[in-house]
Amino acid sequence: MRSMMRQPLFTLACVLLSACGAPEGGPKTGTPAPRFEARYVDGSTRRFPEDFAGQPVIVDFWAEWCQYCPDSMQRLDRARREHADVGLEVIAVNVGQDQATAAAFIDKLGLGYSAVLDPDRSITAQYGVKGLPVSFFIDRNGLIGGRIIGGGDDKTLAMQLSRILSNDTVDQNQSAAR
In CA terms, which of 1, 54, 79, 111 is 20 to 30 Å from 163? Predict the structure, then answer.
């Protein structure tokens, strides 16, 4: 009986934590997402939010050793594919690992997105990340819409996506009605 209660309690804890403000020093819901420049595993460099202007973005912090990261990353990849028509992007921030390790892990999971490297954990510190995985949901205006601490589940992901894609859904419904 006790093991049957663990998953619902864990899910409830994740939902409650995702609705809270960020840890001290990290971004709070409704505030601009911290800017950063990072190198992708392929060697290219991207700037956030400049290179993603006008797009909803999930900034996901992960590492190869993280027990819950594979499921979380694959869930985010499915969401990215499902919402590709509205430009949803995932920036997977690898925390503290080398290029070869990050690239091999992304390939192993068969993800449709790449990863940026945060070898000195400066991006991780800007976002106030203390444990992995953590995903920040950023709307088209570059504002933090919410976050998931821990692996989460499909219901929690849908709730967070609704916060940053709500205008897209309204726009699509209006277009369909015309």
Answer: 111
